[in-house]
Write a structure and sequence with these properties.
This protein has 221 residues and is an alpha/beta fold. It has a domain of 154 residues. The chain contains six helices and eight strands. The strands form two sheets. It has a four-stranded mixed β-sheet with strand order 2-1-6-7, with helices on one face. The chain has a four-stranded antiparallel β-sheet with strand order 3-4-5-8. It is extended, with a radius of gyration of 31 Å. The N and C termini lie far apart (91 Å).
Length: 221
Amino acid sequence: MRRRRQPTFEQPSLVPMADMLTNTVGIMLFILIFASLSAGTAAVLKHLPREKPTHARAVWMYCSGGKIVHFEPDMLAEKLVKGLRKPSFSTADDWAHKFSSHTVDTDELQVSGEAETEYSGDLFQQSVRIKSAILVRRKPSQGEDEVAVKAPGSAFQRLLAEKNKATDFFFFYVDSDSIRVFRAARDKAATNGFGVGWTPLDANEPARIGLSGGGKVPTVQ
């Protein structure tokens, strides 16, 4: 009788898989080369900006409506509190109300106060903390646009000449409609050796500077 032949296991060939992988890698390399050639002289960012604290003094700038203005929070705060007595525990609420209702106009700015009281403690011993800030808005007809910022003798150029790059840095509040003027001013400041930092604002949002630790802490990037 003829013996029935036992089935045997045959090792599958890896040649088709190797061909498939080779073709895939080749196509990917071709795509990368094509993309690199198409990019031409496109600039590649070498590093991502990172915020870091600084001991330099902030030179405050506000960008809105396509224009930029400089402001000094300390001077504006002094004008807002002028005529207000120093608050106490019993007068804290009244002081916060009066400060919030105060407004100050300069040649370029409209400034208002913002304050609220926070009480802590128990029935026998309580303390109060007043959180205050100034809100800065640019008057519609004031400020310099992108072209003016780049022009010799402009207010921004004179400000650059007055400040010291070793002890000062420029910090920008930037409305969404003022990216171009911000970039022009930022690049000019950086070219002159100054550190720069910025924070974005919503449309028509004022620059808010906390006077009691509740505002934006300026950093360089």
